[in-house]
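Task: sequence in, structure out. Protein: Amino acid transporter transmembrane domain-containing protein.
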Amino acid sequence: MGVLPPASSASASTTTLDTAAAPSVAKRDSRLDGSSSSSAASVAGKDDKEVVQGGLDAIAEGPEVDDVFGAQGDGTVNYRSVGWVWTTIILMKTQIGLGVLTIPSAFHTLGLVPGLIVLCVMAIMTGWTDYEIGIFKINHPQVYSLSDCGKLMFGRPGSFIFAFATWMYMAMTTGSAFISISTAFNAMSLHGACTAVFVVVAALMTFPLAALPKLEQLKFLSWIALVAVISSVLLVTIAIPVGGRPALAPQEGPWDADFKVVGNPTFAQAMNAISNILFAYSGTPLYLPIASEMRNPRDFRKAVVCSQTIMTCFYIVVGCVVYRYAGQYVANPALGTAGVLIKRIAYGIGLPGLLFTSVIYNHLAGKYIFVRVLRGSKHLNHSTPTHWLVWFACIFGCLMFSYIVASAIPVFGGLVGLVASCFGTAMALHAEAFMWLYDIRDAFKVKEKRTLLLWCGVIGNVIILGIASFLLVGGTYGSVLSIRDEYAASGGRPWSCADNSGLV
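Result:
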């Protein structure tokens, strides 16, 4: 249902230009006016090596000019260096991490059958919206973030709203990762230090890795992180049915898992659980910046299909097995569900995955501001003192905000639900539905083009907008009440020293 430009159009994200023309074109490309960003002399790349001429008999060799990062060549920072295979890995890692750790607990709240239905619905909706990211990037190569998309569609108000929601999502997710890392340290050390100290340690570990300027430089950690988090989750998934008793269950005498096929939650509890499942799929705000650093953005859709399919199968297996054998004693995060020994081992194995979550979200939150501040200037892609000063300031500033969030709201499940409902719905569902409707607006004006398929697309995206709006209101309400209740139950407080490795 997506609207793609013809192969010979001027919508490729990289153009080959005459050297003398490059500065003026780069300047024009920095504007987000919704029009094609290349001149009649531009070319569109079908892939990384093939170039189709766009109107000239011959084109002089010259530097590449990216629609986002400007001129590419000697003396510049080449951000466009990511292939589709690694893109698949990084898309999976932006999702598989904190999100999967909340699914068993959400299944307990909703019941297994409603939980599976909600998970599948979320997979379908976010799979479509993630796919739309790739289509929109091809149609509008000048966009780098959802804020740019907001400006195309709604002008300055849209840019501000989308910018705020996107950055808050990334920064607060970094804060959630800090909490999960502090939980890991508490579990491994048997609460060997104050939790507030472990949150500081998490921030200190994140900064040097997040400050690496290019996504490609995080490739080594992404592979380790993905293997680590999958291994730790699978360890817990296998250990629970084999070990016999979850860590939170009574260690002596009879115990009842209270396994529920259909749950009976309150409205607030149900909405918080649904928001937690949405969080497992709400890495979409990161997808457009990732696509912008691909060598060939046309391959992004292939990466989305692969990653979404693998993630959904993994979520279903983990959620069903862990909840089936742990029942009401499932922990949140789920790595704490097995016995004490398994919990310590699982957190030790999964720590690189938890760390990578904080690194990638902090990196992209900082780069988001970095590109907005320096876009259109030579400092964006040249190693000048201004370039590095602004870069490190952006990373450090985002890190400090995330640290304050993690310390002020040290409740993992409630914070995850709040992030997903407040900002995940807008950025993972609302934005992409509007983007699809924006791209078909001209076709819809022509009666002959109003096909059944087009009408189905319109109805489908309007339904997504309605569901997202309901989740925005209801999920926020449920998450706020969840944070309040968990605070009261645990005696938690900001900058707390209390052990958080045993919180449900």
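Residues 81 and 472 are 36 Å apart (CA to CA).
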